[in-house]
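To: structure subgroup
Subject: Chain for Friday's discussion

All,

I'm putting the inputs and outputs inline so they're searchable in the archive.
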Amino acid sequence: MSDTPQQVPVTTADLLHARRDDPGIALVNADGSWTWQQFVQECAIRAAALTGLRGDGPWHVGVLMDNDPEYLFLIGGAALCGATVVGINPTRRGAELLDDVVRTDCQIVLVGDAYRELANNHGRHQPGVAVRLHQGPPGDDDE
């Protein structure tokens, strides 16, 4: 037994870093599967892209999309770059939707294709909040 205490991971980023070389399966869905190595790599790609989008103030990233692998990659990417993901409720409309974004201090809202119309109708008119239609890693989005 070693006298040196082992460091226990304390954040999501720590947990992801601990699995970055793990060849075991991390995620399975109808579109395929990802090993932990692949999952952490996808998260790191999102972290780099999100870092490039950061502005002043709280680093809150709104996400308005379905619960799919991309959403999970964004959560992991946010953890790796120190951002906080704010899940935006797609059942809200108009002033309620905008209030959710403003009240949670989102700098940016990433919008999945399924919610493109909702964002176009309600989400593109808030000063100080960047809305991006999200197709993949954040650097690939439309303004």
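Points worth raising on Friday:
The chain has a mean pLDDT of 84.
Residues 36-53 form the longest helix (18 residues).

D.
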